[in-house]
Amino acid sequence: MAEIHQTDICVIGAGPAGLFAVFQLGLVDLRCHVIEALDRPGGQLTALYPDKPIYDMPGFRVIDGQPLADRLMDQISPFKTRFHWGQQAISIARAEPQEGLPLGGWQVGMKDGGAVLSKAVVMATGGGTLGHGRTQAAPPGTGTFFQTDSGLISSDTRDFETATPGIFAIGDGCAYPGKMKLILSAFHEAALMAQWAFAICHPQKRLKFQYTTSSSELQRRLGVRSAD
Ligand SMILES: Cc1cc2nc3c(=O)[nH]c(=O)nc-3n(C[C@H](O)[C@H](O)[C@H](O)COP(=O)(O)OP(=O)(O)OC[C@H]3O[C@@H](n4cnc5c(N)ncnc54)[C@H](O)[C@@H]3O)c2cc1C
Predict the structure, then answer these.
(1) Burial environment of residue 156 by CB neighbours within 10 A (0 to 12, 13 to 18, 19 or more)
(2) Which residues line ligand 1 (CB under 6 A)?
(3) How many structural domains comprise the chain?
(4) Does residue 188 belong to any structural domain of this protein?
C-alpha cells in the first residue's frame, strides 16, 4: 500500500548533489527522506561513468565514478536517512498544516501514490530522471519554483532557494549566473542550502557555525564521539 511519510527535508535525487545535501543537512541535525527514480545512488556517476576516472575531485588525484558514489553513501551512513529507490517524484504541493509539520510544509508525491511530507524540499534532480524522461515542473499554484527555458531551476546563490520559499535547487538542475556543472559546485551549493534549511525548520533558533574538526556536537552527530 502507498505510504505517507513525514520528515524534516525531502531530497529529490540521489546524485552527488542529493547525497552531499543529506550530509550537510545531517550536520545541522535535520532528517531526510531521499526520492530517487533509479534503483541505486550516484546519479550520473554510476549511471553514465562508473568506471571513468575523475581528476578534479578535491583530495583525490583520481577517483572513478562508482567509488566516489560509494564514499558519498558511506559518509552519510551516520544519519538516519530513508531512501525511496525506483520512485519518481511527480508532484510538489503545499501540505495541510499538521502535527510536526507547521506552517509552510510540502507534500512530494511519488509515482506509487505514496508521498513525503516535509518542512522543505531540495531539488537535486540533475539533468532529469536519467533514462526516465525529464523532471516535470510542478503545476502552477502548487510548487511555483521557476524553471528556465532549458528546464533548469533558478536558485539564489545566497542559499540556493528557488523563487518558492522552502524549495531549494542544487546541482546540475539549478541555474544561476556563472553556474558550472561540476560536482564540487554541487557540494558548495549543498553546504549553503543546509544553513537556510535549518532556519526554515527552526525559525526560533540561531545556527552556530562549527567545524567538524573541533565541534564535539558535530562529532557526536557523526558518531565519532560518544555522549559526554
Ligand atoms: C561523462 C561525464 C563525465 C563527467 N566528468 C566530470 C568530472 O570529471 N568532474 C566533475 O566535477 N563533473 C563531471 N561530470 C558532471 C557531473 O557528473 C555532474 O555535475 C553531477 O553528476 C551532477 O550531480 P547532480 O546530483 O546534480 O545530478 P545527477 O548526477 O544528474 O543526479 C540527479 C539524480 O536525480 C534523479 N532524479 C531526477 N529527477 C527525479 C525525480 N523527479 N524523482 C526522483 N529522482 C529524480 C536522477 O535519476 C539522478 O539519479 C561528468 C558528467 C558526465 C556525463
Answers:
(1) middle
(2) 12-18, 35-38, 43-45, 48-49, 54, 56, 88-89, 124-130, 135, 171-173, 181-184, 186
(3) 1
(4) yes
